[in-house]
Amino acid sequence: MRAFSRRGRTLQTHLASNELSVLGTLIGELIELIGPLGPRAGDEMFAEPPPFWKDDPALRRLFPDAYKDDETASAEFSRYTMADQTLLKIDAANLVIEDLSNTDDGWVSVPPDHIDAWLITLTNLRLVLAERLGVQNLFDADDMDEPMAAVFTWCGWILESMLEQL
């Protein structure tokens, strides 16, 4: 992968086919993980989030308690916001998948109106990977001898490369 560069207002990078595959797969898994938290047909407008989300540390990291010292207020906040937050995360992830699907010989172009989606999605991926790996600070992944730690670091590098162009 090459660092992102600017082409006018568009960001551009080159990804090898295996990098495209890994990133696309991870984003698909992110959508699968959070999808059940979104609104479901027949739900009232502000339905209670499914109870299982509190059992998964990665979901708790993506949707943290708004009020750590007030369980009732936190549950109410989740009730009113989780479905929308989920849809925003899924919509962002789908825009990234769209950009990854429209490559030209590995060249990925990120139009200006998709940049936020990339930043959101890469951050969400890193939060999930960090939780799955047990990463608590910036340097934890550097000491791990796991392939997913390398992916975590790589996603951080992609994010940093994008931010440097903004």
Characterization of this structure:
- The chain is mainly α.
- The protein has one domain (5-10, 23-164).
- It contains five helices and three strands; from the N terminus they run E-E-H-H-H-E-H-H.
- The protein has helices at 17-34, 57-62, 71-101, 115-133, 147-164, and strands at 5-7, 10-14, 107-110.
- Strands 1-2-3 form a three-stranded antiparallel sheet.
- Strand 1 and strand 2 form a beta hairpin.
Break the fold down into its secondary structure elements and pairings.
Blueprint: E1 5-7, E2 10-14, H1 17-34, H2 57-62, H3 71-101, E3 107-110, H4 115-133, H5 147-164
Antiparallel strand pairs: 1-2, 2-3
